[in-house]
Design goal:
Shape of chain A: elongated
CATH architecture of the largest domain in chain A: 3-Layer(aba) Sandwich
CATH topology of the largest domain in chain A: Rossmann fold
Largest interface: A-B, 52 and 52 residues
Strand content of chain A: 15-25%
Oligomer: homodimer
Mean pLDDT of chain A: 89
Order of helices and strands of chain A: HHHHEHEHEHEEHEHEHEHEEHEE
Distance between the termini of chain A: 71 Å
Strand order of the largest sheet of chain A: 2-1-3-4-5-11
Number of helices of chain A: 12
Chain lengths: 348, 348
DNA sequence: CCTCTTTGTGGGAGCGCTCCCAATCTACTG
DNA sequence: CAGTAGATTGGGAGCGCTCCCACAAAGAGG
């Protein structure tokens, strides 16, 4: 039953080698021979054995995307879905297959890393949302598999693509200061993740630059998801903040919910800036001022960069930082007089 | 540089075969030999070559999840993310790696199918959200790769897992009728998808059973996403519907937006029932009455069923239909008097 | 007509692994 | 203490492919 090159070769009256040449589009096959072989291949529904091929060439067209430790909520937030989608799209375009590894908090990180390693057949890896001290990174360095980090790299010499988290956070907080808010708090992501830490640094920097003191009581750590934003905002309301920089839009939605429940209005009573610019952020109540992260571009570029690395078109360390821009809408303050982007019409 | 069994064997002073036995946990290796070999493997950071292994055993621990044609919006809807997450979790648990294939509307379906086929090394496939006439299905049948459909099967004898779309839709619409609504429309999913068609059938059935006529003008086709729900609802408002059964929660959110924009209230003026029971549906305004689909369970079970098939623990056709239950909240009507589930407290 | 290149084709070797069988070693039986 | 079953180990074969080299066939040039 199992077909192989030899089988096709026999049917076409040629040799294994010729069939191989036809499949791999090598030159030096007589056009009519090529046509005959191709016909048989189609007719027999023959697909060359990927394992055998990989074995001999020592390379596969498989990339892996690794998300070391996802919680259930990771997937109600569109960030990862959008990232995954842009990665699969680019991978398909470049003719790579994508292997998806999502770590599970219950599983030991170490065992997970082992499993990923054992199964990533020669391809490269994309690591998203790595936490500090993830055991996978040292393993990979050790084993010399090409890989690229999506986000801030835990070590300086690694390949990575990131957005300018610090700069964008700083711009967001400066904007809140410009809008006249005084007591500005922040809701951070999990601080063992580089992106969350960088955004917090940006927050501190902006306050310092404006000559304001950083009050540690106004810094509350969240988990990037909606419920944690809700909780954190409730804590900040106790601290009488009048504005908040929230490190993700999902948390900002949670914060909005907490603020509304407390009977306060945005942006009349409290100013708020998010981070991500999710599709839903433009139509929240009120529309959210937020930092636009080019999520899809990050995914797409990450894939391209890894392919460059694998195919020798780039040398490590291969690093790129994309800008992230502030999108001013209504949640950060009544702004019709100074930030008149577009029509500048206030909500009715 | 490249390590192999022979290399480890030499270092441990044993043969290739023994190393293989250690790696595969075969019995009949003297405990101290086993320990020595394991030590060397760890020390050398050795990982057996997956391709070679697959080549000889003719089986791999790779499953593929195929989403034949996703649009960008597919991934702002939590349905697929939740499905993917439950599948990866189960796959990891069963020691399978997961390959993810997301079709792209621009790419020819046929070429996509070919690529999937060529790269799915011996493992089985999970097909989600298949559209009718997808060329992948006949290919798979032809090539005899084990696969399982998530959703209604396009052919009767295929392996599949589905939820009772028809029954649940019928219950949802019956509920609207029970709430006293008369002119009940529906927003369907893309009707070339089995699940969408089945939900529409349920809608028709419920109306017929209640002795109501089905008005084709009250049936509007959407694309399962928020914007299409918004558009469809605007069309239905023209038709003066007083209630709507919406085939996905995302579309229901869009419908809610359209209704609010039109200055109408839910559930005072219009009753609405969704489908999916996404996490956000419990906290929408008003909380959405919807059909709870056990998305995660579907993903998890699908993976388990495919593994059963691959490992010969089940014979095709292997089929399962899960119940979906109506969750009554506030959007379907003021219900404190007849559907007093829980406290039955109305919104204040 | 003979050499020399070019084009097209076939077959051997070998990628790293598993599986089978044979060989060896051990421990126990009568 | 021979005899044997069982445990342990080693090496050959072969999975299906690509790559290299050898060779045949077909032109090109003198």
């Amino acid at each position: 039953m199992n077909q192989n090159l030899e089988h096709i070769a026999r049917l076409a009256g040629v040799s294994r080698s010729t069939v191989s040449r036809v499949i791999n589009n090598h030159p030096n096959v007589k056009p009519e021979t090529r046509a005959r072989v191709q016909a048989i291949i189609r007719e027999q529904n023959f697909r060359p054995n990927a394992a055998a091929r990989t074995l001999v060439t020592q390379e596969s067209n498989v990339l892996s995307l690794v998300i070391p430790q996802a919680v259930a909520s990771t997937f109600t937030d569109p960030y990862f879905p959008m990232l995954i989608q842009s990665i699969t799209a680019k991978a398909n375009e470049l003719d790579y297959a994508l292997m998806l590894w999502i770590g599970n908090s219950n599983e030991m990180a170490d065992r997970f890393a082992q499993r990923v390693l054992e199964n990533s057949l020669f391809g490269g890896l994309l690591i998203a949302a790595a936490v500090n001290n993830d055991p996978l990174i040292p393993y990979l360095v050790n084993v010399q598999i090409p890989f690229l980090i999506i986000g801030p790299p835990p070590l300086p010499e690694l390949n990575f693509i990131d957005v300018d988290n610090l700069g964008a956070a700083r711009a967001a907080v400066s904007h809140l200061i410009d809008m006249g808010w005084k007591r500005i708090g922040t809701i951070t992501g999990p601080l063992n993740m580089g992106a969350a830490a960088a955004r917090l640094d940006g927050y501190r920097l902006a306050l310092q630059e404006a000559g304001l003191t950083v009050d540690e009581a106004l810094i509350v750590e969240g988990r990037f998801d909606e419920p944690s934003g809700y909780e954190a905002m409730n804590a900040l309301l106790q601290q009488q903040v009048d504005a908040v920089f929230v490190a993700s839009d999902m948390m900002a939605f949670g914060a909005l919910r907490a603020i509304h429940e407390a009977g306060l209005r945005v942006p009349e009573d409290i100013g708020i800036v998010g981070f991500d610019d999710l599709p839903a952020s433009a139509s929240s109540t009120p529309p959210l001022t937020t930092v636009r992260q080019p999520i899809q571009e990050v995914g797409s570029l990450a894939t391209q960069m890894l392919a460059d690395l694998l195919q020798g078109r780039a040398e490590p360390p291969y690093q790129k930082i994309l800008p992230a821009t502030l999108v001013v809408r209504q949640s950060s303050g009544s702004n019709s007089f100074r930030w008149s982007s577009g029509g500048g019409v206030d909500s009715h």
